[in-house]
Amino acid sequence: MATPMTDSTMLTRRGVLSAAAGALLLSGCGPTTAQDDAEPDGSASPGGPELLIGVSLELTGRGAALGVLQERALRISLEDINVERVQVGNLRRSVRLLVRDNRGDARLAARQTTDLIRDDHVHALLGTTLPETAMAVAGVAQRLRTPFVSLAHGDGIVLPLAQRTFSYKLTPDAADVARRLAQLARSEGLERVALLAADGLHGDSGVRAVTAALRTVGLELDRAVRLPRGGADFADAAEKTVADEPDGVILWSAAPDTGSAARALRRAGWRGPLFLDAAAVAEETLEGSNATAVEGAYAVHPACLGGSTLTNTTTAALARRDFVFRYIQQHGGFSGFAPYASDALRLIADAARLSTSIDRGRIRAFLQTLVTDGLVGPYAFTPIRHSGFERDSLGVYTVSGGSWVRIS
């Protein structure tokens, strides 16, 4: 799904990155030989003519609200890819996914990932929707030198770069999301904004990013309150957040905590503007009793949330439209789900195809130079930036009538 450079993109940032990527790869990789399909120890590659990808997802337990949706997306895209398979060197390889349910447990995710690499000999890894499980997988991936494409929110997954040379992240950076939220709050005429942030690594990123972003646009951070760990009662945190009657509240948390926290804020008497970060966007956030609590809330999210218009006929838009149609057919609805897992699968397949090899090191080398349009949005990876989502494609949405509606 990699997009070739055209005359109209020659002078864009992504066009320059494409040209630089080609030069880097030509200087850094030697010619492909039959040895490229061997393991680092020189033995024949296990798996035969397959490209094996290990998948770690939260299919049960904490994180399942997003993990199950990612598995659905994977199945749709895997079927598409395997129609013609992936041309890797002189072989067309089927893609096989080895899916593991990490149950939201970082230690289990690490053990499963170790087994996927050592016992199943996967060529690459993708997955996890929680930053804690993503960090666990990233640590194993680095130690065992296997490329990992993360679906979780949290900047530490790919930082510091010297310790994350095999990890890549598809979700927007916290600073980019916080910047758009702060600009939106300022445009609404707000002066004091309170922050209610999740526990854990995702919330940590949010506190840092929102604090800096509000300062940049001249707004006051009224207070920063953290949600209790482990899905406990959010009532106390909500009451503390609105105690000083701020002009607006930023809720920085992922589903399913977003809906619960929004309900707690409403029960605490909050009726003012509510702003959500990108991790809040999932079907569960708009379901049941959550719908009333988040009605009118704003969210910053990749532009795919608004769907494709009938007049948009780019390759990426057509692929996105087809994906949404098939998702609705199979699962009965599509309410703001961004298919990061589908993009991760295609990025790994593209890297293997471009590298003409299933060698883990070569797949990693080509991942870090991919410039492509995905279903979620455009990505531009570089050797010094493993968080590839392009900030310019973030959109601002509001919840209206139980749906996400783009307003800018």
Automatic annotation (TrEMBL):
Span of the signal peptide: 1-34
Ranges where the record places region Disordered: 30-49
Domain Leucine-binding protein: 53-387
Pfam families xrefs: Peripla_BP_6
Signal as UniProt keyword: yes
Keywords: Signal
InterPro entries noted in UniProt: BCAA_transport, Leu-bd, Peripla_BP_I
Family the UniProt entry places it in: Belongs to the leucine-binding protein family.
Descriptive protein name: Amino acid/amide ABC transporter substrate-binding protein, HAAT family
